[in-house]
Amino acid sequence: MKVLDKGFVTLVDIMGDDRSAVRAARVSHGKDISTDEKDRKLINYLMEHGHLSPFEHITFTFHVKAPIFVVRQWFRHRIGMSPNEISRRYTSKNVNEFYIPDHIRIQDTKDKQSSNVYSDEQLREETLEIIEEVYKKSYEAYEKLINMGVAREMARIILPVGEYTEFYLTTNVRALMHFLDLRASSHAQWEIQQYAKALAQFFQKTCPWSYEAYLKHQYKGDILK
Amino acid sequence: MKVLDKGFVTLVDIMGDDRSAVRAARVSHGKDISTDEKDRKLINYLMEHGHLSPFEHITFTFHVKAPIFVVRQWFRHRIGMSPNEISRRYTSKNVNEFYIPDHIRIQDTKDKQSSNVYSDEQLREETLEIIEEVYKKSYEAYEKLINMGVAREMARIILPVGEYTEFYLTTNVRALMHFLDLRASSHAQWEIQQYAKALAQFFQKTCPWSYEAYLKHQYKGDILK
Amino acid sequence: MKVLDKGFVTLVDIMGDDRSAVRAARVSHGKDISTDEKDRKLINYLMEHGHLSPFEHITFTFHVKAPIFVVRQWFRHRIGMSPNEISRRYTSKNVNEFYIPDHIRIQDTKDKQSSNVYSDEQLREETLEIIEEVYKKSYEAYEKLINMGVAREMARIILPVGEYTEFYLTTNVRALMHFLDLRASSHAQWEIQQYAKALAQFFQKTCPWSYEAYLKHQYKGDILK
Amino acid sequence: MKVLDKGFVTLVDIMGDDRSAVRAARVSHGKDISTDEKDRKLINYLMEHGHLSPFEHITFTFHVKAPIFVVRQWFRHRIGMSPNEISRRYTSKNVNEFYIPDHIRIQDTKDKQSSNVYSDEQLREETLEIIEEVYKKSYEAYEKLINMGVAREMARIILPVGEYTEFYLTTNVRALMHFLDLRASSHAQWEIQQYAKALAQFFQKTCPWSYEAYLKHQYKGDILK
């Protein structure tokens, strides 16, 4: 699933589905049998009452490509998140891929945490020109340092946080919901919202009952509804 | 897989295998291609150098039945362990199942943390008689309280820690290895060692390369070799 | 602070107070200066918007004595909870202390997760008699097994979950709030509610602004207000 | 404590010392009394046998200033690490501070994960000139974008990972030891090694017995001895 201009989210592997949460919840009550209708009701009940531990039994592995500044926000989520990221100490692969925005946001002068989409085409062009110029210069300088024999781990200190990086991430539905609460939200930066939306789609496809119940009872954000 | 007199460990679900760790490790180095031989070597390298995060991408769900005192030791492992346990507040199901040892261990008088297997048949019989008598009396009293209308959550306070309980557990190979370090060890209580051995067998079957490399380079216990 | 008939919660050590959360939150905004009024407002803002990570910088160590069945519920909280508990493998100290309820709750026949306080004095006496009888028999049997030389780790399997145990717990305010959400709640078992209330008092005393803002904006339970 | 050219590590707050670990470990054994000699022995015993949970009762809060690329390595440590970092969405404070190395390392051509210190003065000067030029251009472009009204969260995408950032970190001795195992190691990048050494000094000063026992029995790195 394509995200931003050069990024993606791929679902690599999955364990479980709606019924895995049901099964784990039922053991608490010492019950086995279930029907579709009862399973769905139970999932609703769990979400409504905040019994979220059964959702730790559904796990995903994603392969993600995203700009460094997005990844830095992402990895603030520590609980139930197991990442392995490409290392710029070990490889120079694809080092010349940088995030180019397709729109420009201006600083909200009243609310310092907000930004607004920018409609002036001239300013958009000027901004992109500046950004692309810095990307170009940084990359050329990096290349030059590498060619001079400077260690990769040292040369990369000049690479901008708009550079794309890649990682594998294993997480579970409970951790994913917490991520969506904070990042599938208009308070989050627009770029990470796009990744959150992609994850939400995978969540919805694989666990439709849980996703529906989550949106209804638990979701604290505002862009998925 | 049967464990102790009435317990078990069942593998309910699994995500990934040896190659999941390889894949996650390779992203760090920006590499894709691999052969069986190289994958195996990489797993060895990771274990040897303590790069254990790639093993968080292999997850298991187990269904376990074990005595409460074993579960209490088990749940001291908090990292990467997602359990859902039967609740004695909600159900009286199977409340009359208790662990009966098949051997008796005597207290080591020098090392207070040790115990030794007991060979005197008379003492064994006496011990089992005492244990079974307490189990019987506790259970009868529990039944009586329930019949008198006392709340399950209150009646159960007299049930012994030898009572069997059940839980679903989702964990990953890294957390599993840490569990085996401490519990597949002669320092651990004999009963939890049996569960650790069962988990080790599932680990070996599903990730033979990782298991072999773990035993060679990382394993801190002494009973699996 | 005395809890239940023989238990307690003692505050052993503490790091930080309301201002520790403020300080950590301010670094995010690149600000230093603050007044009491602004600090208090900031704490309110953090709680209102669910920015809870600054509250991980306030840590407590508690010494707790509680029945095993309470501790089992308590330790289901894994995030930000570091416990060390007395081990019945290593010591027989105080093994004869058991929880005697001062009231009896009967099973709610409609809501199987609920119980109601019992007012019939005769039934109360009968119930306590049964409970105390099981405690007495179990303890005598334990003593006998120990005297016969049976290992402590084996003899203890007949001890009931109403037995008191002790532990040291280090936690932080964020984890504590999550604990209070679930355990300072009428849905939790009455006994653990008493421990939750004790923790809440320590929280209120040491971080009055955070506690007030927590109750106002975040608290999901119902018994602290 | 100054680290690198413009960074620092400051100890902001602390809870506990060597005796906190002792106290928590003793509860496991049901013991209270202790002498200095016995306490020290117990700490040695715990480290030798890998009983590390008692060291979770000693917590620190640090204030750290470090380049982004160091912080990215640092925050791969998720367990027992509670950070709050300055946000470039919210502030432009000190945005023009970048890491200038005082030595240059060249790529090891055999071991792709290694680098060697560079002794050729001419190449050093050329390298620093290139790095400083990129820093200068990036910062000027950032300033220009900000002056044009572009949102901070968008303008910062061109800032290099050599930029300094700040964070508050609360951690405990167990998590700190794990950090030192991997980062106070010649396998880690030289820059993060300097931060690891600073943390090690704070550890040594506040918990001299634990630090000594850690180096003797647990430490997996090679630069602290």
TrEMBL record, chains A, B, C, D:
<feature type="binding site">
    <location>
        <position position="85"/>
    </location>
    <ligand>
        <name>FAD</name>
    </ligand>
</feature>
<keyword id="KW-0274">FAD</keyword>
<dbReference type="GO" id="GO:0050660">
    <property type="term" value="F:flavin adenine dinucleotide binding"/>
</dbReference>
<feature type="active site" description="Involved in ionization of N3 of dUMP, leading to its activation">
    <location>
        <position position="183"/>
    </location>
</feature>
<keyword id="KW-0285">Flavoprotein</keyword>
<keyword id="KW-0808">Transferase</keyword>
<feature type="binding site">
    <location>
        <begin position="172"/>
        <end position="174"/>
    </location>
    <ligand>
        <name>FAD</name>
    </ligand>
</feature>
<dbReference type="GO" id="GO:0006235">
    <property type="term" value="P:dTTP biosynthetic process"/>
</dbReference>
<dbReference type="Pfam" id="PF02511">
    <property type="entry name" value="Thy1"/>
</dbReference>
<keyword id="KW-0545">Nucleotide biosynthesis</keyword>
<keyword id="KW-0521">NADP</keyword>
<protein>
    <recommendedName>
        <fullName>Flavin-dependent thymidylate synthase</fullName>
        <ecNumber>2.1.1.148</ecNumber>
    </recommendedName>
</protein>
<feature type="binding site">
    <location>
        <position position="53"/>
    </location>
    <ligand>
        <name>FAD</name>
    </ligand>
</feature>
<dbReference type="GO" id="GO:0070402">
    <property type="term" value="F:NADPH binding"/>
</dbReference>
<dbReference type="GO" id="GO:0004799">
    <property type="term" value="F:thymidylate synthase activity"/>
</dbReference>
<feature type="binding site">
    <location>
        <begin position="73"/>
        <end position="76"/>
    </location>
    <ligand>
        <name>dUMP</name>
    </ligand>
</feature>
<feature type="binding site" description="in other chain">
    <location>
        <position position="156"/>
    </location>
    <ligand>
        <name>dUMP</name>
    </ligand>
</feature>
<comment type="subunit">
    <text>Homotetramer.</text>
</comment>
<comment type="similarity">
    <text>Belongs to the thymidylate synthase ThyX family.</text>
</comment>
<feature type="binding site">
    <location>
        <position position="183"/>
    </location>
    <ligand>
        <name>dUMP</name>
    </ligand>
</feature>
<feature type="binding site">
    <location>
        <begin position="76"/>
        <end position="78"/>
    </location>
    <ligand>
        <name>FAD</name>
    </ligand>
</feature>
<comment type="function">
    <text>Catalyzes the reductive methylation of 2'-deoxyuridine-5'-monophosphate (dUMP) to 2'-deoxythymidine-5'-monophosphate (dTMP) while utilizing 5,10-methylenetetrahydrofolate (mTHF) as the methyl donor, and NADPH and FADH(2) as the reductant.</text>
</comment>
<dbReference type="InterPro" id="IPR003669">
    <property type="entry name" value="Thymidylate_synthase_ThyX"/>
</dbReference>
<dbReference type="GO" id="GO:0050797">
    <property type="term" value="F:thymidylate synthase (FAD) activity"/>
</dbReference>
<feature type="binding site">
    <location>
        <position position="178"/>
    </location>
    <ligand>
        <name>FAD</name>
    </ligand>
</feature>
<dbReference type="InterPro" id="IPR036098">
    <property type="entry name" value="Thymidylate_synthase_ThyX_sf"/>
</dbReference>
<feature type="binding site" description="in other chain">
    <location>
        <begin position="85"/>
        <end position="89"/>
    </location>
    <ligand>
        <name>dUMP</name>
    </ligand>
</feature>
<comment type="pathway">
    <text>Pyrimidine metabolism; dTTP biosynthesis.</text>
</comment>
<keyword id="KW-0489">Methyltransferase</keyword>
<dbReference type="GO" id="GO:0032259">
    <property type="term" value="P:methylation"/>
</dbReference>
<dbReference type="GO" id="GO:0006231">
    <property type="term" value="P:dTMP biosynthetic process"/>
</dbReference>
